[in-house]
Amino acid sequence: MIKGERKRNPADVSVRESRIHGQGVIARKGFLKGEPILAIDDSDPVVDRSKLTPEQEIFIDVFVASDGTQKTTWMKSPERFINHSCEPNAYVVTDMRSGVRRTRALRDIRVGEELTWDYALNIWAEWIGPVPCHCGAEKCRRVIQGNYFTLPREIQRRYLPLLDGPFKKRFRNEIQSLNLTAKPDAD
Ligand SMILES: [Zn+2]
């Protein structure tokens, strides 16, 4: 639970028309690689997911919380407008002590750049889809399927260091059985 909007740093970003899809979240300042961008507001739980319409499903988030439980929440602005990219510039890191999830810069981000994350990170078979991807990245996978375990193997390997703590803990066995570190490849 986050106390006070000010801690979320929403002033560092703004919601504007996106080049990728609909509205997006644009950086109003530069961020260095690894820098926290925005704390995610996880304070509004979805009580009964089975009652949601497909239109409502778009605005929920399903994740493993710091206590190891599965949580389903209504995504709040601005983070609900962060678009998917197959070459994202941000990712999510949970503070294991406070439980607060934060988006962090995956690389240096310039003022005016749109923030993106990969919807397939830290997610398993809980996501509705697949849907076509129009992210425009050079290595676009053409589809958003929202499941780490069904990603191409080389992407699973590249994302391994980016997986969030609670997800790694809960799916330790499943991740191990992917055997991703056994044969490191050239990338
Ligand atoms: Zn894409």
Distinctive features:
187 residues, alpha+beta, Beta-clip-like, 3-stranded antiparallel sheet, two-stranded antiparallel ribbon, 4 helices, 11 strands, 22% strand, globular, disordered N terminus, binds zinc ion
Please tell me how large the radius of gyration is: 16 Å
Main sheet makeup: 3 strands, antiparallel
Contiguous helical run count: 4
| Strand and helix order | EEEHEEEEEEEEHHH
- Class computed from helices, strands and strand pairing: alpha+beta
Helix content: 10-25%
Task: Identify every distinct bound molecule in the structure, by name, code or SMILES.
Answer: zinc ion
- Kindly provide the name of the CATH class: Mainly Beta
Strand arrangement across the biggest beta sheet: 3-8-7
Which parts are unreliable, with pLDDT below 50 for 5 consecutive residues or more? Answer: 1-6
* CATH topology description: Beta-clip-like
Distance between the termini: 39 Å
Brief overview:
By secondary structure, the protein is of the alpha+beta class. It has four helices and eleven strands.
